[in-house]
Amino acid sequence: MTGTASLALSFLFQRLNWPVTMVRWRAARQIRSLMQNEETREAATNGLFEFLDKCRTESEVSAILSLVLLLEPGARPAKDALIDRIRRPSILSEYLLQKLYGAGMGGWIAAHSGTPPESFEAGDYFEEHKTAHIPPVFLHNLEELETRTGLPFVRQWSFEWACVRDETQFLYTRYPYYFDAFSEVRSGIVGNYLQRQSEVFRSAYLRTFAYAVSEWRMPQSRALREVLELLPAIGGMFDLEPAQRPEWLGDFPDLCAPKDIDLEALVRAKMEQPLGNHRVVSFVTPFSSAIAEYGDLHVGAYLVTPDFSLPPDGRLFEPLDLVIANSSIDLNGPVPKTTVADMVRPGTSGSSLSICGSLFPIPHGYWQSDYFSVGLPTIAAYCLPGDAEFVVADGRIEQRVGNAALATTTIWNDGWTPRYPKGGSTRCGAMAVLNKGLFNELPGKLGRKLAWFAEVRIWRRERDFDEFEIDERRCFYFDS
Fold this sequence. Notes:
Oligomer: single chain
Distance between the termini: 66 Å
Largest sheet: 11 strands, antiparallel
Number of helices: 17
Helix content: 25-40%
């Protein structure tokens, strides 16, 4: 490999530490492509070894191993050569090595900092940022474990954080205002950036569970369940390439933005339009930037009882539809057998049943968290005529019964940036469609009436120094 090519490869691997998750995902996709190509495999593998050799935190090592797990078996490096480059083992890296090669490297159970001295205090930075550099769910998990066991999980996490920080000397970084307009951040627009401190917090979390297994005799399988959400990618989802914004949408979203329009009339006319042999069942999309930089339109189909009226808050939503992928680390596979009882929701009177659930695999892969934030609508199992499989193909999630793709979900970016308003999402879109014949049969099959719910959300401010305020409008109607 020439010096220029080697330098370019080094730059590519450095993108795995870029502060924007979508950049990391794009870089990982390209690295995998190079490693699976016989002509570039050797150079790319050497680049991976060099990068892994310099990883200073457990979370970085786990990210590299998760990428290796996504390779075709013939493209994976030799186990011994890979292990020789691992400086920071953890329970998660051990699990990934076992998935890759049938056996790990050991040593992870001692990969913690011991018991904190009685005088230890984490300090203000940890307290202020323990839910800033990584999602709050990790703190919630530790607090829940404390409640159940009486053991000091949060204190151990803070001690591990202090030790990792001392070892790495990563800076005490705060919000990276240099990425965004200060006035927007002050007014409520934020970006989900992964600074170096995020690796410290994640690695300390891994060390906490090494300590729990070693010193508190937590079962290894239980500890593993707590750390799988630190994986940056899973199979299937990793291959879900954003498509072009669907032509079917046209200028419809922007027509729904003005305050004085008849939202129900617009939605009624649009949702009657088929998409080939399918019907659009659910979608969420941003408006054009000229209309609203921060805002979205969501429309979804529901099956309701004849006496149904909206709940007191005036909203309907698609409940999370969990896919437990702990063993496979892959979305491809059986569609969960979600039942009506799982998804039915009461109204002020009657009840509603969503045709779509909001797909959320466990683990989900945080490199693609933007799409899970906007919501990934997929058809609920009770709407399909048999056992179905998720198959990621041609840039979309297909739900197949036998060889027939009866439903598909696509995603897209629309003038995407990492910024989003609090309570909102980045400029991504998602759409679920269902075979037209199956769609028409649903009301009779499930003994309910078809209805539609639409919601417009736009964040606005009058002046640059004002807070962003959300304008929300909704409509609900029974399909005629």
